[in-house]
Specification:
Chains A, B: Its EC number is 2.1.1.193. Chains A, B: Specifically methylates the N3 position of the uracil ring of uridine 1498 (m3U1498) in 16S rRNA. Acts on the fully assembled 30S ribosomal subunit. 2 copies of one chain form a homodimer. By secondary structure, chain A is an alpha/beta fold. Chain A folds into 2 domains: 3-68, Beta Barrel (Ribosomal Protein L25, Chain P), CATH 2.40.240.20; 77-235, Alpha/beta knot, CATH 3.40.1280.10. Helices cover 31% and strands 25% of the residues of chain A. In chain A, strands 6, 7, 8, 9, 10, 11, 12 and 13 form an 8-stranded parallel beta sheet that branches. The first copy, chain A, has a 5-stranded mixed beta sheet with strand order 1-3-4-5-2, with no helix packed on it. In chain A, helix 2 packs parallel to helix 3 (121-134) and helix 2 (88-101) packs parallel to helix 7 (219-233). The longest helix of chain A has 15 residues, at 219-233.
Chain lengths: 236, 236
């Protein structure tokens, strides 16, 4: 299968022109020819079958032969807000793995104990795009620009809101409190966890405290654990 | 906390001498002094509290003050046999993450479609050791040398045996077939999955076929998903 990510295509289009870069890749690298089949995903759930009409190395023309909307649509909505790791590669692999396992939206939050105060979203988005192509996903997870913890708490979210932390106190088990096939926003702290003040503020903002088990997990592992649990608990 | 991995210590020992390398790290790098507290793990479940008796930079002497055997003993035994990934870094992060989440034994299997036919266990073991120190585990997962797929099938294993694959046919859901707090051996295939012949051979050898969900996962992600599921299903 030869899959291309083409966010500017729409289901109504009978034809599509690959970008110069994609054309070069298709014709020069993959050595595709007129009549060969390729697939396109638009990142919004659309999965397209197409045939190469003109194998032009700079402006390949495709005829769309079929469209599947809402391809492998997920049965829930998962938004994870995580503090970027000091070592950016750890955040990068979380994004790749979460995309494979299943996630809809990621926010990067700058917290009191964050060692990293910023993250380049463009580069991170390229990793997500590579992951959806590799794992054959028609929905492109949304990656939001980094915001301060307080700003994120203030954003409206229609669904269940959780904060995962390691401080003492009652923490709920997702297995017991999650609404099946719902919408979830989960906060994951930095190395060193959220500060007690941040946790207090989150609880006041309607977030419920959860545990991800007794194991001591790195930030990116905790974020992936949350992603895994939500997907597993929603698996039919 | 200053944690050292000291596999040669035993609960009966009243004192312990750090290796030259560990001594240098403790005294020159961490700048620890006589009277300072440190912790030791022996990799077999023993967690030790100790106090520096002689802060010698090449031969630091520790007095053991207390020992906790079976520290955070897991309630099940998980052995994952996985085909080493072409890109060794992907296997390395699986080992780090599985150690954080919880695993007891890892075998590396060379399969029909394996692009990588070998893997240096020494280097991989260093990654596991770093992970147990980071995640405060007193048990050091066992990493076995790479063996051929057929050889692994022939090894005796007292517990449930599963093979995760993506070929057509009935595949079971771990949630429905796993015996709680049991012993499990799970096979994870290479990029390109196990061959139908390998799957057949595994079934004949008493392995039950399982699915890890509908998502298309990379080898290392599938192995971690299996690790997640087993730990999650055994979480009390």
């Amino acid at each position: 299968m030869h899959l291309f990510y083409t966010p500017d295509i729409a289901p109504a289009h009978p034809q599509y022109f690959l970008s110069e870069e994609e054309s070069k890749h298709a014709i020069r690298v993959l050595r595709l020819e007129a009549g060969d089949e390729v697939q396109l995903i638009d990142g919004r759930g659309g999965f397209y079958n197409a045939v190469i009409h003109d194998a032009h190395p700079k402006r390949t023309i495709l005829n769309i032969t079929s469209v599947t909307p809402e391809f492998n649509k997920r049965n829930h909505y998962l938004h994870i807000a995580v503090a970027p790791t000091k070592n950016i590669e750890r955040l990068e692999w979380f994004l790749e793995k979460a995309t494979e396992i299943g996630i809809d939206e990621i926010s990067l939050i700058i917290t009191q104990r964050s060692e990293r105060k910023e993250a380049k979203v463009d580069r991170l988005n390229k990793i997500i795009t590579a992951a959806i192509k590799q794992s054959l996903k028609a929905y492109h997870p949304i990656l939001n620009d980094a915001v301060k913890f307080n700003q994120l708490l203030a954003l409206p979210f229609d669904g269940q809101k959780f904060i995962a932390h390691c401080e003492p106190g009652d923490r709920l088990d997702l297995r017991k409190v999650i609404d099946p096939q719902g919408r979830y926003l989960i906060l994951i702290g930095p190395e060193g966890d959220f500060s007690p003040a941040e946790i207090e503020l989150a609880l006041e903002s309607g977030f419920k405290p959860i545990t991800l088990g007794e194991a001591r997990l790195r930030t990116e592992t905790a974020a992936l654990e949350a992603c895994f649990e939500v997907n597993f608990l929603n698996r039919l």
